[in-house]
Amino acid sequence: MPSPRTVGSHAILLLSRCGRQLGDVASRRSLYSAAPIADLAAQSLSAGFRDIGCSRRQRKLSAMDTQLRGLQISTPDVLDLKNTPTVGGGVGDTFGEDAATEDQTLTPWTRIVASGSELLRDPRYNKGLAFTEEERDRHYLRGLLPPTIISQELQVERVLQNVRSYKNPLEKYIALMDLQERNERLFYKVLMEHVEELLPIVYTPVVGEACQKYGNIFRRPHGLYISLKDRGNVLDLLKNWPEKNVEVIVVTDGERILGLGDLGLHGMGIPVGKLALYTALGGIRPSSTLPIAIDVGTNNETLLKDPFYIGLRQKRATGKEYDALLDEFMNACKQAYGEKVLVQFEDFANHNAFRLLQKYATTHLVFNDDIQGTAAVALAGLVAALPITGGTLADHKFLFLGAGEAGTGIAEIIALEVSKQGKTSVEEARKAISLVDSKGLVTKSRYESLQEHKRPYAHDLPPAQDLLSAVKALKPTVLIGTSGKGGTFTREVLEEISSYQDKPIIMALSNPTSQSECTAEEAYKYTKGKCVFASGSPFGPVTYEGKTYVVGQSNNCYIFPGIGLGCIISGAIRVHDDMFLAAAEALAKQINEDHLAKNQLYPAFSEIREISAHIGAAVAAKAYELGLATRLPQPKDLFAYAKSCMYSPNYRKYR
Ligand SMILES: O=C([O-])CC(=O)C(=O)O
Ligand SMILES: [Mg+2]
Q: How far apart are CA 239 and CA 2, in angstroms?
């Protein structure tokens, strides 16, 4: 019986002869593993290569099948690595490599050194024209590259020029995603060095459009897809992922993508984008990040009829079926990657988001970005605004339009912070906060029919049908929009709030830009330059009556990369609400006199890596304080330690 290594080399040899398309599909994995190569070869055999446009290779494939059989690993055997979803051989041996008992199957992952065309097709190691003379000699690259050698810096310039030449933002998105698949370090270097320009493309708002058209622009799969069909085999799917040291997972079920609603499996763009930011903004190694989309169907009729839709064509599963898949998934994450893998829930619909967070918060290292990340970033903005508006948080009166994850998440963190600062309880602090949902003001008279997360805000107030009447009745000093509906902070609403309040705080947090409750310009114009404004989507500076205001982006991407970094460097085993308070405080501290002079509530993204390190250090410090950290002893200087752990996108030398 040949060793897996031998099988791997044979398969690589065969695959490399199979032409570019297959090589493209296989290359990333082929460099690490024998079985998946044989696996791919076998899959391709049965698919007759039609999907990847390689049908003329079929004769060679039959030959490959024969060869694989000659190696006594028949293709069905290779395909049939049916693992029961249990932990492997011994404690900490999830993949069953060292101590697997004989009746347990294992995935024979192995590493080999990449060279030649395989090296050029591996996005993690490819450097394109930046390979040095020496590397070209040592790694069999001669002739595979034109003779020119250029620096990574020049490559960055070239990429930027190309991206800028596209007029359509979606084309820019596609170009950047292609780069990520081709040359990962170059992608991150470009993104990190031009973060303000490129963030709106790989992230909100353009990622929203990309998700809407995900089926049309589909090229290569990103991340891991888990569907209802995989019930009972979720751990096996995780074992197919080519990385074992996963530290951060972002998962969505696609039911509430940004403010765009149910986009089903096309929501995959969000975990992919968020994790790109974990690396670019928070310095988390890309190989330790895993984007996951869970497919339980979609209720989006347009997608169900769309021939290019990539997900299951069925209505969303709910109840026990849904819960069982999620439960299997959550357990499989810990089985595969251990207690300290961070799972970020993203863009789940309200009816699942709150209960999933509650269900898993005590058993897993989890948080919900839309509830807690958004809450922390909004709190940071409010704290930063206090020197402009005067007073403390407890002096303000808050009105929300939108009572979903973001709205009640922010409301809760405000109440928590006020209660920590003053002598009031959280219950008392909630009294200064009111919510308007699609049925009007949330009041006590509606209590019975309210969803649980809104009930703490059902105050004893007269009813109000809409936002404007609620503003008139309650006279809030802070107006926060998390409704997912564009244009809802109307001229009347903005004029009303500025009629009685000197410096109202207006936060229009819905995403993408089309769903923003108002634009930055509208906010300044209709409040006659009185307001302090922030938004969830990016807006350029606004000049009103000769004064220029810089619009801070109150987006959770300031917070989640630092939360991840803090959890990883401290080895945290649970996420605690106080870590979000610490993160918000660390972010608010970044605002100085210069920012305040321009009404800017959030620092520039160009400083984000430093900011993430501060947030990471604050989060880690809190984890140590709460006894939730396992990485001991605690580093003396957590900020320096956080910085030292951050991924650099610069090319490494290959020996
Ligand atoms: O992705 C963003 O820009 C913020 C966010 O989490 C959401 O809107 O769901
Ligand atoms: Mg989100």
A: 23
Q: Has residue 403 been placed in a domain?
A: yes
Q: What is the pTM of this model?
A: 0.85
Q: Are 405 and 371 in contact (CB under 8 A)?
A: yes
> What share of the chain in percent tops pLDDT 70?
85
For 542, left (φ over 0), alpha (ψ -120 to 50), or beta? beta
Q: Given 127, 213, 239, 274, which residue is catalytic? A: 274
d(CA 173, CA 561): 21
377, 584 Cβ separation under 8 angstroms = yes
Rounded to whole angstroms, the Cα distance separating 282 from 342 reads 14
Q: Do 545 and 569 fall within a single domain?
A: no
Unique residue bearing structure tokens 């290292």: 365
Which ligand lies nearest to the CA atom of residue 555 in the structure? 1
Measured by CA distance, the residue closest to atom 6 of ligand 1 is: 370
A 10 A CB-CB count for 594 gives: 9
Give the residue numbers spanning the domain of 635: 560-643
Strand partners for 542: 549
Same domain, 575 and 550: no
Residues near ligand 1 (Cβ within 6 A): 204, 258, 347, 369-370, 511, 555-556
Residue pLDDT, tens place only, 292-317: 999 999 999 999 999 999 999 999 99
**How many C-beta atoms surround the C-beta of residue 41 within 10 A?**
25
Q: Measure Cα distances from 331 to 36, 118, 387 in Å.
A: 24, 35, 46
- Of 503, 525, 554, which marks where a domain is finished? 554
Alpha-carbon span 645 to 282, nearest angstrom: 10
- Alpha carbon distance 468, 508 (integer Å): 15
Q: Would you state the torsion angle of the CA atoms of residues 497, 501, 502, 507, taken in this order, to the nearest 10 degrees?
A: -50
Ligand 1 centroid to 28 CA: how many Å?
Answer: 30
Which residues are annotated binding-site positions for a divalent metal cation? Answer: 346-347, 370
Number of domains in the chain: 4
Q: What is the ipTM of this complex?
A: 0.95
Boundary residue ending a domain (527, 554, 581): 554
User: Is 334 noted as a catalytic residue in this protein?
Assistant: no
